[in-house]
Amino acid sequence: MKKIVSIVLVMALMIFSSLTVVKTASAEELKMTGTITKLVLAADGKSATAVLKDSKTEALVTITVTDELTLDKFKDKRIVEGDEIRTKYEKSGDTNSSKMFKKTAGC
Amino acid sequence: MKKSVMILFMVSVLVLVALQAFAGQDHSEFVKGPFKSGQEVTKVCLECHEKQAGDFMKTSHWKWKGTPNHVKGMENSKKEFGKANMINAFCTSIQGGKDGLVHEACGKCHAGYGWTRTNYDFSKKENVDCLVCHSTKGNYQRAAKGCVVDTKSMDRGSMDLNLAAKSVGLPTRRNCGYCHFFGGGADAVKHAGLDSTMEKPAKKQDVHMGSTATGGQDMTCQACHVTKDHKIGGASSTMAHFDSRVNCEQCHTGTKAPHQKSKNGKILSRHLAAVACQTCHIPVFSKEQATKMSWKWSDMGKDLKAEEQFDKETFAKKKGTFTWGMNVKPVYAWNNGMIERYMVGDKIKDPSKTVYMARPVGSINDRTAKIYPYKLFTGDQPMDSKYKYLSIFQQYESLWVDFNWDNAIKNGAEGSGLLYSGKFQFVNTATYIAAEHEVSPKEDALQCGECHMGGDRMDWKNLGYKGDPMKFGGRKMAGNQ
Q1: Residues B144-189: pLDDT tens digits?
Q2: Which of B134, B186, B341, B401 is the most buried (most CB within 10 A)?
Q3: Residues of chain A neighbouring B106 (CB-CB closer than 8 A)
Q4: Which residues in chain A are closer than 8 Å to B159, comparing Cβ atoms?
């Protein structure tokens, strides 16, 4: 009996810890459309942070951008503060990492 | 020995000089500024490049039309056709509206200044926009409306017209992409595998244009779209005119002929009589961003809920409903180099059937035809119920203001010259758009089993075969020769 209880406890512990690990490791993917209120390019040019004002909730969300194509657009001012952006980002802890960062413009 | 070294030295110097010239002269000394308008820049360009402006003004990039040498049945026509006077299944036409009102918006992608109305003087060289194709710095932008330089971008400091003017050089992918990545009105809408992600693709996305860092060739557009006197090579699968064609054989011939090192080289090369290179080497398109696959204008103005497909909206009240595709498997069709094209005013015999806006000409019986890959774009758009032709409607100053089709077609008729009977209906349309970009590395090319031995990529019967040619025989055995 003791053995069965031990096995069940060990299994429960394993399931619990694996779920905890998954929760910690997995990042939430979110989408939003919003206007850039602040855009700061890192000194080494390899990343940037953009603060977007969510068009639905008006909440301010800071997103880190590291992809080269978008960074190029920041550098030569094709994307600037005031532009409306459609973005997809991964939220992991306090960091929101951009997966897609595009201007909404189009006719 | 000394003589040989001398000759070698001289040749090296000549090559270096030639390369320097090819790479483009530094213009910053000649182009001083300051400039406030595009025409001011062009006037400076004309001081040395008047001939080039004259050459450019003979091209379809300037005229937005040319003789319809691409359209079956119209090869000998002297009348010119192009974006200026054709209709498509996207935003449809630039003719909708009194005096060509819509030009002022669509003209953002005309490589010239001031074409805001139908009556435009195409003879003024100072209206050529050199910068949209040649500026390499300064974030040159054209305004969304008005066919001018975007002064708003200048005011807010995101564009430097002087730097743009000083930085002129050979076009980069970004220059061409300024318009061509955004065909159909926005990023990735129209073309198969030609969108803003192609500005800096990885080799996996496009073996030719892929960055060198990823093992690609980092080729410019004009490396394939060979240009002479500003006439840019390439025959769009939906347009009436071309100046010259682009072929893989431009490079892949002789010692660079394909499949030489392949263990199945002979079998693969036999395919070339019936299968275009693109068919195997572009197994999917729109690898990094979804492209629009359908557009139902009939849903315009409705209050539908927009869903998301590949991160893009499936409905916009102004435009109707859409579907999107990513990593799309092409459809396949025979093509002998010509197209069938719906032209403005063509009568629709049976409105219950799909109207083909553009489709390739060719069949299994046509020895000059090969099987090519296409994006099959479908949708619907309005047709005049009495006159039985596709209607040209005014979008942004009419339809997008009151969502009223009747008004939009009435207003559109004023620009197009097509009479409006007062009654309209929607007809289904389809367009074959050639998949020509995003050529995959050879390891990602189609394998035999994708098409043969049970592979379902090809609809063999629809292509005219009795079945898989590996089982039933090729074109000769198809019983049609």
Answers
A1: 999 999 999 999 889 999 999 999 999 999 999 999 999 998 999 9
A2: B341
A3: 107
A4: 77
**Chain segment B227-282, per-residue pLDDT in tens:** 999 999 999 999 999 999 999 999 999 998 999 988 889 999 899 999 999 999 99
Q: Which residue of B has its CA nearest to A73?
A: B139
Contacting residues for B174 by C-beta, under 8 A, at least 6 apart: B199
* ipTM (interface pTM): 0.70
Strands B315-316 and B320-325: antiparallel
| Sign of CA pseudo-dihedral B244, B248, B251, B252 | negative
Structure confidence at residue B100 (pLDDT): 84
Query: Closest chain A residue to B182 measured between Cα atoms?
Result: A106
Q: How many separate domains does chain B show?
A: 1
Whether residue B425 is predicted with pLDDT greater than 70 in this model: the reply is: yes
Q: What is the pTM of this model?
A: 0.89
Q: Per-domain residue ranges for chain A?
A: 28-103
B428 is a domain residue: yes
Give the architecture-level CATH label for domain A28-103: Beta Barrel (2.40)
Contact A65, A72 (CB under 8 A): no
Question: Looking only at Cα atoms, what is the longest distance across chain A?
Answer: 72
In a domain, B15, yes or no: no
Q: Which two tokens stand for residue A28?
A: 């939430």
Residue pLDDT, tens place only, B12-57? 555 544 444 445 688 988 898 899 999 999 999 999 999 999 999 9
* CA–CA min distance A3, chain B (Å): 51
Across the interface, do A69 and B137 touch by the CB < 8 Å criterion?
Answer: no
- On chain B, the residues whose CB falls within 8 A of the CB of A82 are 156
In a mutational test of the A interface, the residue from B135, B179, B311 whose CB has the highest number of chain A CBs within 10 Å is: B311
Domain holding B88, by residue range, is: 36-446
Q: What does the alpha-carbon distance between residue B294 and residue B376 come to, in Å, rounded to a whole number?
A: 9
Distances (CA, A) of B417 to B72, B101, B279, B405, B408: 25, 13, 41, 17, 14
Nearest residue in chain A measured CA to CA from B181: A106
Q: Is B144 on the interface with A (CB under 8 A)?
A: yes
- Interface contact flag, A78 B200, Cβ < 8 Å: no
Q: Is residue B74 part of a domain?
A: yes
Query: What is the dihedral angle through the alpha carbons of B363, B366, B367, B372, rounded to the nearest 10 degrees?
Result: -30
Of B185, B200, B311, the CB nearest to A106: B185
| A29 contacts chain B (CB < 8 A) | no
How far is the C-alpha of B205 from the C-alpha of A14, rounded, in Å?
42
- Kindly determine whether residue B187 and residue A80, on different chains, have CB atoms separated by under 8 Å: no
DSSP string of B323-339? EEESSBPPEEEEESS-E
Please indicate whether, in this complex, the C-beta atoms of B186 and A86 are within 8 angstroms of each other.
Answer: no
